[in-house]
Amino acid sequence: MTWPTGTILEEDELLSNLDDYASSLQVDAILVLGGGVPSSPKDPPTYVKNRCDVVAKLIHAFQERTTTNTGVHHPSVVCLSAGTAHLPQYITPHNGLPLWESTASAAYLMQHPTYPIPEKHMFVETTSYDTISNAFFTRSTFTDINGWKKIIVVTNEFHIHRTKAIFDWIFSVPNTENGSSPNYELFYLSCNNVGLSNEAVEARRSHEQRGEKNVLENLAKQYTTLKSVLGFLTTNHDFYAANKLVRQSMGDGNDEKRSGNLLKLSYGQRQSADSSSGSSLIQDGKIV
How far apart are CA 232 and CA 241, in angstroms? Predict the structure, then answer.
């Protein structure tokens, strides 16, 4: 089985032909996007757990291939995201510090009940708060420096198209004007939307479609170097622009208009302001 560069592969297709894909594809790294408040230090949201479960199965298939072929490289796994920009973070009770979403995903993968991933292959990105910064900080702190060029990007179906638009943009621009092309090869893995009600998924899809359109029609055309993307983040982004961070810290932000309740629930919002309580709105095992 072949997985063409730049295309989206669905979870069911991958798992139905897992050995074939693992045998035909050699990658440097797998990026597991975050996207919601964990319920404990080792429990990301259900839909993120599903991303991790699929990655654990894929890594296991790669490991089996590695044991029979010493020339095969074992890919690194990078869990992404410090937090979700418009939601309070989980606070760890024992030290009062925020829990990065990527830490919860890494803990789940390293302690996976079926296919635990060795810690030497695990990395966490702890600077990003949305998909654009996921891509920017992953490239600037991991892939450019390590020379990882062939990369699988993993998220859920409701998020995959905006993710592809953003990563195609960020991973194709040169560092500066007249710089050379970074020559990345990206593969996109779309995991099933488990753990969310149909209403929450539709709210999320609508949000993602608006974001994808903005990337394709505006951002990718305006910011055409990695340096200019950094400029965009540090002047326009609520979590990286100094003036906006100062206003937010003083209660002058615009958090209330950010998103509706269903959308916030799809990111793991809890019933109370106590992020460590672990109480989400759950019905029939799904966030609603």
Answer: 9
Provide the whole-model pTM. Answer: 0.89
Each residue of 182-200: pLDDT tens digit? 999 999 999 999 998 899 8
Which residues are CB-neighbours of 160 under 8 A, at least 6 positions away?
Answer: 8, 188, 190
